Amino acid sequence: MEVRTFEGGFDGKGLRIAIVVGRFNDLLTGEMLEGALDCFRRHNVDAVDVVKVPGSFEIPLVAKKLAESGKYNAVLALGAVVRGETKHFDLVANEVAKGVANVSLQTGVPVIFGVITVEDELQGLNRAGVKSNKGFEYAMAALEMANLMRELKN
Known about the structure:
The chain has helices at about 25-40, 60-70, 90-105, 120-130, 135-154, and strands at about 15-20, 45-55, 75-80, 110-120. By secondary structure, the chain is α/β, with parallel strands linked by helices.
């Protein structure tokens, strides 16, 4: 029996990646963006395009446009949704998650869900840069998936 295993690596050489980042809660998303860019620099990604949108809810539409363009090996969606006193938090978080997943499935381009959902800004700061930077972690997932898709094409 022949067993073959496919796994994406973390070398960014030859990769072009788009980042869609929501400006709402930019204290958090700005830190995540810097973490993602740091990751891509350290892993020698050839080109990164950053597209800023008003908030997390707008991410799926722009991610779809970028994925459909054929220019990118992966799209990284960065946003932050902070719980408030209304149901708005649940609505936004659910719709963004579904939208990002649908874009990836519809286009065949990896779209990484890098939208943090937090109870308050302190929790968000811990996830966006104080204790760890989720932007860096999500960027690593984008690298791995872009390389895996390249490997599966071959």
